Amino acid sequence: MVETQSRQLFSPEPSQTDDNKLWTFVYRGTPPRFDRTTRANCLYVDHGDHYHFVFECCPQNKTRTIQRLIESGHLDKRQTMTIMSSVQPIINWNNFAAYLVRAAQTPIICVGKKLQHLRDDLYMVPRERKDCATLMRDERGSRQKMSNLTRKRRLDLLRNLVETYDARSFNELNLALTYDERDDIYGEYGSQWKETAEHCIQNYTMRILVEQQTNRFEDHIRTNSHNRDCQHPRDTLDGEHWLDLLLHVNRINKQNFLTDLTRVMNKQIDRKNAFVLEGPTTTGENIIRKTHCGQLHIWDRTEIWRSQSVLPNEPTE
Fold this sequence. Notes:
The protein is an alpha+beta fold. It has helices at 2-9, 62-72, 80-85, 93-100, 116-123, 133-165, 170-176, 179-189, 193-214, 217-223, 236-249, 254-265, 285-290; strands at residues 21-27, 42-46, 51-57, 88-89, 108-111, 273-277, 296-300. The protein contains 13 helices and 7 strands.
């Protein structure tokens, strides 16, 4: 039975089977080399950067026929997946022939005798329409759809990572990612993940800034959860170490902080910020309270609010 189907598939006589249809695929690779003794039946047109193949078979034998054309034509087998993804049925041969013949000197190669009548049709087609726009448009459309889905998945993944690690810059996100996470992201999305990550970080920080500007400080500080727990020091030395660690974790330069605090105390600047500090008296909280002036407000909270944005509403004591 298999041998009978093979003989019918490459029969030199024109097919009379109603189930047979014309198919086409795009091949990008080395030039085809069909032997003179081959039993394959197809025709192909050289479009310079790719080849259009046309063959006839029933839908059940489509994949098998393509595989035999690849073998008998010595086509690049690395293009098999690309070929399979570009296979389309030819609905209207007259319209497709006009797209297939792009220029007057286009080489039309016919392998076997089964499709010689189609080759004759191609030589009779007018040359006004000189591109294969319909076929390539469908291929680009499917490829564009996959690109959009990939972009959406990449955006969702990186947005979740940015929110999970509370990353405010690309460097923070890159340092927070694990070894496997960085490899998985790069392996699936390539170098474009950096651009998407920067976009997600920018949107994330903008959302936080808008929330701070539209909410009252008292409301915002109640809902602002921090991902680090504050430890209560036992003595003065531990308190100093805790305060140094607090400034280091929040990337605050101690010298710059003291300089800015002095400028606020001397009323050299009008900016109203809040520095939230939690801890017993050994941390120096009372000392800072004693140096408190009209433009600096110290809040005794159980959380650290590390945002340095300008507060729209000045808190009241």
